[in-house]
Design a protein that fits this description.
Largest sheet: none
Distance between the termini: 39 Å
Number of domains: 1
Low-confidence stretches: none
Order of helices and strands: HHHH
Mean pLDDT: 90
Radius of gyration: 15 Å
Helix content: 55-70%
Structural class: mainly alpha
Strand content: under 5%
Shape: elongated
């Protein structure tokens, strides 16, 4: 049976759920798609909040992104730490800000 879901997570997100060789997913594709949808929606939602800060200076942008990541890595967060990092990098991309260094 064909999968009716048209959503294809980008390679940057698939890497979170891939084996070290990158050849297989560590979770079922439906789970990965659901997690991607959550993370993409979260990044889109956060653009409004982050842009309210009117951070024009790259140092201010880094601070906004760092605080956002810290909040997303908190115990009440709906995302895993690796997903939180992806959300923050996606947020930077959406805002045309320099992404934080990968950790």
């Amino acid at each position: 049976m064909d999968d009716p879901n048209q959503i294809e997570p980008p390679p940057s997100f698939l890497a979170i759920y891939s084996t070290p060789s990158g050849n297989r997913l560590t979770e079922p594709v439906a789970v990965v798609r659901d997690r991607y949808e959550l993370c993409e929606d979260l990044a889109q939602m956060l653009t409004g909040q982050a842009s309210l800060n009117q951070a024009q200076d790259p140092r201010e942008q880094r601070e906004v992104l760092a605080k956002t990541q810290a909040a997303l890595e908190g115990p009440e967060s709906p995302v895993q730490p690796a997903e939180a990092q992806w959300v923050v990098r996606r947020l930077a991309e959406l805002l045309a800000w320099e992404p934080p260094p990968e950790s």
